[in-house]
């Protein structure tokens, strides 16, 4: 197939916009990215930085693995810190351990079998000095997960793409109109493109709002916090997740034993369900430990951050983690858009005008793979 260079316009310099920009630039296109903030500001800089392959259902495993490989490549070529640290789901209760055992048994024969391993409590502690040994029954190791520092990674990708591929970035530049072939800026300027991709995150009201009408896309607010650097080079090792997390990601939903765990949480600690709390930890290259999180959806979202929620998150984290110190450097919240009928919402309301959003809590994990999948669809290679 004959290839020609396209002018590609992208709205949004979050991870979804950057992923599409990179894929387009690699295909030799002339790429321009518009970002309304002076620097990336949305969900993509507020997350754990977990490339969380294990949490993805079977039908997107290839996308997730491709995304992971591209993060590692971005690390090598763009000079980003990308740590292939793996992950451990820890069990401190019998019902959590039952889910991990069932999941490991079911996946033993499949492609996941080679990268999953059940660990004894001693093996968990060998891999992570941050695991709380009190009541620890075991863990599930996965070697697929990577860690990035979201703020520095997302802010370092634009200069790298500029340097390596000549991608042009216009920060502090809001796009106020988008139609097939052109975008309009707040300044009144118009820019002409062959292909436009709107990656505006949770802003579903500014550009082409009619496309979202009746689509099950909901905003979700999450509470997060980060310790100051841990002392004397203390490393938690892999990403760590507690048993509560088993309710959160779709991959564990196939386990029949999950129901007993969910029932126990509903009767013992319903406040965790009220605020969608499950607990995880990652550690960046500065030694700070990123901790979270909670989930409040749609109309329940308030601009105010309730201390009660952070208190519940910390209460649950103390049950599974032992850190040298818990001094907090910051607390914040992030908001993402979540599509209820799939892992991503992709639409083409007019020829050459695309929308990509709704990745929920999986944007850091899947975006590079989703963008590759989209570009392969738009421009299949017939080698
Ligand atoms: C607290 C939290 C923790 C998370 N943890 C993880 C994790 O560990 N692993 C994982 O895989 N995922 C995680 N996620 C999910 C992930 O962060 C999101 O799925 C992802 O960042 C969404 O990326 P995005 O590019 O769609 O949105 P955003 O990052 O919000 O980017 C959208 C960008 O578009 C810009 N924009 C919008 N409208 C316009 C306009 N009209 N003109 C110009 N610019 C515009 C915005 O300013 C913004 O910068 C987490 C999310 C949160 C909030």
Give a written overview of the molecule.
It is a single chain. A hairpin with a 2-residue loop joins strand 20 and strand 21. The relative contact order is 0.21. Strands 5, 6, 7, 14, 15, 16, 17, 18 and 19 form a nine-stranded mixed beta sheet that branches. With 383 residues, the chain is α+β, with helices and mostly antiparallel strands. Helix 1 runs parallel beside helix 5 and helix 2 packs across helix 9. The protein contains nine helices and 21 strands. The chain has two domains: 140 residues, 3-Layer(bba) Sandwich (FAD/NAD(P)-binding domain); 180 residues, D-Amino Acid Oxidase, Chain A, domain 2 (2-Layer Sandwich). The longest helix has 18 residues. The structure holds flavin-adenine dinucleotide. The site of flavin-adenine dinucleotide (FAD) has 44 residues, from helix 1, strand 14, strand 19 and helix 9. Flavin-adenine dinucleotide binds next to helix 1, strand 14, strand 19 and helix 9.
């Amino acid at each position: 197939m004959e290839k020609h260079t396209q002018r590609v316009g992208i709205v949004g310099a979050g991870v979804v916009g950057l992923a599409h920009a990179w894929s387009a630039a690699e295909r030799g296109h002339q790429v321009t990215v518009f970002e309304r903030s002076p620097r990336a500001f949305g969900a993509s800089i507020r997350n754990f930085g977990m490339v969380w392959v294990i949490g993805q259902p079977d039908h997107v495993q290839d996308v997730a693995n491709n995304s992971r490989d591209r993060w590692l490549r971005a690390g090598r070529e763009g000079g980003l810190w990308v740590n292939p640290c793996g992950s451990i789901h820890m069990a401190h209760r019998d019902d959590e351990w039952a889910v991990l055992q069932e999941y490991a048994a079911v996946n033993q024969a499949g492609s996941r079998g080679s990268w999953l391993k059940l660990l004894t409590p001693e093996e968990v502690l060998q891999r992570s000095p941050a695991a709380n040994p009190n009541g620890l029954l075991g863990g599930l190791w996965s070697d697929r997960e990577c860690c990035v520092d979201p703020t520095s990674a997302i802010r370092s990708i634009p200069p790298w793409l500029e340097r390596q591929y000549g991608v042009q970035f216009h920060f502090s530049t809001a796009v106020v109109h988008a139609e097939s072939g052109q975008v309009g800026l707040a300044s009144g300027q118009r820019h002409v493109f062959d292909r436009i991709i709107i990656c505006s995150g949770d802003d579903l009201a500014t550009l082409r709002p009619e496309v979202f009408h009746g689509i099950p896309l909901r905003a979700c607010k999450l509470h997060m916090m980060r310790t100051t650097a841990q002392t004397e080079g203390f490393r938690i090792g892999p990403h760590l997740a507690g048993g509560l997390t088993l309710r959160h990601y779709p991959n564990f939903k196939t386990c029949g034993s999950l129901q007993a765990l969910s029932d126990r949480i509903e009767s013992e600690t319903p406040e965790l369900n009220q605020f969608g709390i499950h607990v995880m930890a990652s550690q960046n290259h500065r030694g700070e430990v990123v901790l979270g999180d909670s989930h409040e959806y749609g109309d329940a979202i308030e601009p105010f951050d309730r201390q009660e929620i952070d208190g519940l998150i910390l209460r649950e984290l103390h049950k599974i983690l032992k850190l040298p110190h818990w001094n907090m450097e910051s607390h914040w919240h992030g908001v993402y858009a979540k599509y209820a009928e799939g892992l991503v919402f992709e639409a083409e309301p007019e020829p050459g005008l695309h929308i990509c959003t709704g990745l929920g809590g999986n944007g850091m994990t899947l975006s590079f793979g989703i963008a590759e999948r989209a570009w392969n669809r738009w421009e299949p290679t017939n080698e």
